[in-house]
Amino acid sequence: MSLPARSPIDVAVGILMKPNGDVLLAQRPHGKPYAGYWEFPGGKVEPDESILDALKREFVEELGMTVLAAEPWCGVEYVYPHAHVRLHFYISREWLGEPQSLEGQAFAWQGSVGVEPLLPATIPLIEWLDRLRYLG
């Protein structure tokens, strides 16, 4: 007997990109699945909330930053042991504020990404992002 398929959870993910191509990565806080892994910041989309609104809300809640504008970039579905997620990636080059550790998480601006371990769904995106940042 197979288990019923779980519907994917929609997640808004933001890639803040500085003019020099550096992007912001955050470390997942203790108490969450994959604690200590690095990812692009974001979070779950609430019912009746647009993906962009969720992205803006999450950046205020997690990092104390205001995303002024963001463009949809790509979508990825990934099945983790704890959740099936549909990740909606947005790139923002316009925001207010500097990141603050509001959930006790570490964060780092990265050019060539050197932080480890990366969240599994993030790994293929780094290569795509490098093409966008440095070749596009």
Can you describe this structure?
There is one protein chain. It contains two helices and seven strands. It is α+β, with helices and mostly antiparallel strands. The chain has a single domain (21-134), classed as Alpha-Beta Complex (Nucleoside Triphosphate Pyrophosphohydrolase). The mean pLDDT is 91. The chain has helices spanning 51-63, 123-134, and strands spanning 9-16, 23-27, 38-39, 42-44, 66-79, 84-96, 107-110. The chain is globular, with a radius of gyration of 15 Å. Strand 5 (66-79) and strand 6 form a beta hairpin.
SSE layout and pairings?
Blueprint: E1 9-16, E2 23-27, E3 38-39, E4 42-44, H1 51-63, E5 66-79, E6 84-96, E7 107-110, H2 123-134
Protein name: 8-oxo-dGTP diphosphatase
Pfam families: NUDIX
Family: Belongs to the Nudix hydrolase family.
Question: Tags for this entry?
Answer:
136 residues; alpha+beta; Nucleoside Triphosphate Pyrophosphohydrolase; 3-stranded antiparallel β-sheet; 18% helix
Return residue spans where pLDDT drops below 50 for at least 5 consecutive residues: none
Q: Identify the CATH homologous superfamily.
A: Nucleoside Triphosphate Pyrophosphohydrolase
Oligomer status: single chain
Count up the helices.
2
Task: Identify the CATH architecture.
Answer: Alpha-Beta Complex
Overall mean pLDDT: 91
The 3D shape can be described as globular
Domain Nudix hydrolase: 7-132
Keywords: DNA damage, DNA repair, DNA replication, Hydrolase, Magnesium, Metal-binding, Mutator protein
Protein name: 8-oxo-dGTP diphosphatase
EC number: 3.6.1.55
